[in-house]
Request: fold
Amino acid sequence: MTEFAIPSWDTPTIPVTDAGKPFPVRRIYCVGRNYAAHAREMGHDPDREPPFFFTKPADAIVLNGVDTPYPVQTSNLHPEIEMVVALATGGTDISLDKANDCIFGYGVGLDLTRRDMQGVAKDMGRPWDMSKGFDYSAPVTNITPVSQCGIIEAGRISLTVNGKPRQESDLNAMIWSVPETINYLSGLIELKPGDLIFTGTPDGVAAIERGDVLEGHVDGLETLKIKMV
Ligand code: MN
Reply:
């Protein structure tokens, strides 16, 4: 056992559906504006922009069913429903035809966003880190392994808030497919086992409040249910 200069901590993990061993989380990458209708609602032309990425800390994960604290320093918190890809292997310059081979499984996640803080960052040309990568900003379900659900390329993705429909689309509406995202991202950094990729959100984003109950759904995966407290 390595001795550390200060007390160390455990690797963040996510349970795996119907398995005893959890998935260890290394890093969290998120795709921006990956559904045309969401890009438009945020004031951008979806046709001319290559994919771009931002990150969250691995310990921003909140497990399914766990009460999620409403963050400080915002009065306009938006939940973005997204399919989450969990990688079993990585690499650099991963080709399109090998990209799906890297996938361990999938989950349903929320990219919680301090939209007011993000707006200031955009206006001032500042980074998004504090609007996207804060504590408890990444609720996610258990990971369903590819061995159970197969490779997912299409299917309904939706979010309800207090039982009312908020976001709904199909995964096949992604501008950059999951293999294209893995291909592109692995040209920027070396992807590694344990990395998560949040694959972007459909349109319909809007604010939530303390006490709201959020249910996120992707066909074939566990339903995400969390309460903001
Ligand atoms: Mn997002």
Notes: The domain at 13-227 is CATH 3.90.850.10 (Fumarylacetoacetate hydrolase; domain 2). The chain has a mean pLDDT of 97.
